[in-house]
Design a protein that fits this description.
Blueprint lengths: L1 H27 L46 E4 L1 H7 L1 H36 L6 H54 L3 E4 L12 H7 L13 H8 L2
């Protein structure tokens, strides 16, 4: 901005010098003034305005972008997927869920075995006999019980996973919030895991479209700090 002012000042001085030189030539050479006529005569009350060398043209008000050190926000990023994976309570929940899954699989296995035994027994009975009809009804009930249990188990496990995941997320979010307040952070963004080296299928477009952070310096990553606090 200072350089622009200096250049403008030099231009103005040059213009003033040109006017001075022209004035000097005018004083040296006689001037022949043509007789004015009624149509082209200059009005008597118009005078040439004086030139003020102290006046400079206006300069456009262009502000430079603030430097990184002057940026008023403190920003951090967290890899939530990594936090979930390394959080001790996530491991504990997975073990509890695995035990429930094993018990359910054991019950379902018993039902499937019973269905198979009933089917084998029916195959050797005389169709239409009372025994055949009795076993067929029992088989139908066992199959209905198996289908119902399989369906309700899938719904149960889905709801259980969603409920526990939300609970763990709230715990993680609370720790991140407290960390941000204590350390003076303005924003904490979710850092997405790196894309696989050889992505395949439509999943690539989806992974790209949901990414929230395209670049972040390593020093802004607070993932390790959050994991340490959670696992104390």
């Amino acid at each position: 901005m200072k350089t622009t002012g200096v250049v403008i000042g030099i231009i103005i001085i040059g213009i003033i010098g040109c006017y001075s030189a022209i004035g000097a030539q005018d004083e040296a050479a006689p001037i022949t003034v043509p007789a004015p006529d009624s149509e082209h005569a200059a009005p008597p009350d118009i005078t040439t305005p004086p030139i003020d060398a102290t006046v400079t043209p206006p300069v456009s008000d262009v502000k430079t972008n603030p430097s990184a050190s002057a940026f008023p926000f403190k920003v951090g990023v967290v890899n939530i997927a990594e936090v979930f994976d390394k959080y001790i309570r996530t491991k504990e929940y997975e073990k509890t869920l695995q035990k429930e899954k094993e018990l359910e699989e054991l019950l379902i296995s018993k039902i499937k075995t019973k269905i198979k035994n009933l089917q084998d027994e029916i195959d050797v009975l005389v169709p239409g006999s009372d025994r055949h009809r009795e076993k067929s009804e029992e088989l139908a009930k066992e199959r209905a019980s198996y289908e119902y249990r399989a369906k309700t188990w899938n719904e149960y496990i889905k709801n259980k996973v969603n409920e526990q995941t939300l609970k763990l997320y709230k715990e993680i979010r609370d720790v991140i919030t407290k960390y941000a307040v204590d350390k003076g952070y303005t924003f904490i963004f979710k850092l997405d895991p790196a894309l696989p080296a050889t992505p395949q299928g439509d999943d690539v477009t989806q992974q790209i479209s949901i990414r929230t952070v395209l670049y972040s310096p390593k020093e802004t990553d607070i993932t390790v700090d959050i994991i340490k606090i959670l696992n104390k």
